[in-house]
Known about the structure:
Elements: H1 9-22, H2 27-36, H3 41-53, H4 59-73, H5 78-87, H6 92-100, H7 104-121, H8 128-141, H9 146-155
Amino acid sequence: xxxxxxxxxxxxxxxxxxxxxxxxxxxxxxxxxxxxxxxxxxxxxxxxxxxxxxxxxxxxxxxxxxxxxxxxxxxxxxxxxxxxxxxxxxxxxxxxxxxxxxxxxxxxxxxxxxxxxxxxxxxxxxxxxxxxxxxxxxxxxxxxxxxxxxxxxxxxxxx
Length: 159
């Protein structure tokens, strides 16, 4: 069994700076990384405080970037983004602030575009009920709110 030697606080801090400089990270991810370097709880807390002071670590900035990126690139809805941020132990305040940055018109357009693409991919399904069910499940899995999905069906039912 290979045994790792624990890094000193300064060595771990330097690696953490590089880790945070590469892309935005939440406190939880950095904390786990610091523990993986073999640091004790007191040193991890000290390193986190230093990274926050030096502005390498900013949970609000992380949440806003995460929400925007996953909405634009993966086209996730607010429900899924909220869930994923909670999994990363981001505060409720930061989650609300991040979700507020998503443009409402763009959000609605993305939902409609996703639905239209999915309807086109389900064109081979002869049963209307099955098509509607698959579309609804897809949109909910992407993280769009139940009432928005129902509103989409009321406005333009799949054919």
